[in-house]
Structures are given as C-alpha cells and as structure tokens.
Amino acid sequence: MHKNRNRKRYRINLKDKKGNFFGNYKLCYLAYFADSLDDANWVTESRYNAILDVKARIEAYYQQNFKDSTGIIANNRDFFLSLRDIGEIRVLGHSLGEVDQSYYKAIVEANKDSKQIEWTFSWYSDDDKKRIAKFKEQFGLKKVNYIHMG
C-alpha cells in the first residue's frame, strides 16, 4: 500500500474540476494513508473507529489466508530434497501463477540436474501457452512437452 502513498487519489486534499480543494473522504485513503484522527477528514470519531475496525478485520482475513510459501517449503524440506533424482514432472491444469513460483523454484533447485527434467504441461488457451513459455524461460527448462486440453 505504501507504494501508492503519493498517488493523487490518496492525498489528504483533492481538487475538483473547478480547481477547488476538498477533504479526502475516501475510505481507502482514510484506512491506509491517514496517520491519525487529526490528520484526515474523518467526519466523526465513530467513523474513524469503524474504518479502523474494518481495516483490522480485512488484514486479519488476509493474514489467515496468506500462503506462507517459504514456511511451507522449509517445513517440508525433506520432501523437496527427495526430488533430487526426479526426471519427469507433469503440470496438469495449473495456471503457473506467481503465488506458486517458489514451489517450482524449490523443486528445480533440489534436483541434481534440473536441465534434464522432462516437463509436460497441459494447456487450454493461447494464454496458457504464453504462461508456459514464460515459465520455461524463467526456469531455463530444456525438455518441454505440451498436452492440449481442449
């Protein structure tokens, strides 16, 4: 969120089409960028408390549902090390999303000769093929097969 701090819509005062300034009442600004009760246009103290309560609940939800890939890999170190001699990997119906990149990286790094792994990817759309090509380049895969699932 802090990378957005300087965006116009998250400033304490906004400018309308006529050039007049007005207080920023947007909830995202108030919850994440206003530093105190006195620092923003909260309108009332009860609104301040309500917004902070909602922010805490949202953050608690994401914390509970956050995928701790580093911790999962560390806790399953023996499993990843057991993949040292694996020669073939089939990836079926997987989007190859960023959230799982660390798992693939751990598999490749655990393997004694990752360049020799034969990878097979299923694909359904042209977007899938683009993601596979990006993945192949990112991990330096040499042996790649494709299965069309259409």
List descriptors.
elongated, alpha/beta, 6 helices, 3-stranded parallel sheet, two-stranded antiparallel ribbon
Kindly provide the radius of gyration, computed on alpha-carbon positions and rounded to a whole number of angstroms.
Answer: 24 Å
What is the domain tally? 2
Beta-strand residue fraction: 5-15%
Number of helices: 6
Structural class: alpha/beta
Task: Give an overview of the whole structure.
This protein is α/β, with parallel strands linked by helices. The protein has 2 domains: 2-65, no CATH class; 69-148, no CATH class. The chain is 42% helix and 15% strand. The chain contains 6 helices and 5 strands, in the order E-E-H-H-H-H-E-H-E-H-E. The chain has helices at residues 27-32, 45-65, 69-75, 77-81, 101-110, 126-139; strands at 13-15, 21-23, 88-91, 118-123, 143-148. The strands form 2 sheets. It has a 3-stranded parallel sheet with strand order 3-4-5, covered by helices on one side. A two-stranded antiparallel sheet has the order 1-2. Helix 5 links the parallel strand 3 (88-91) and strand 4 (118-123). The mean pLDDT is 83.
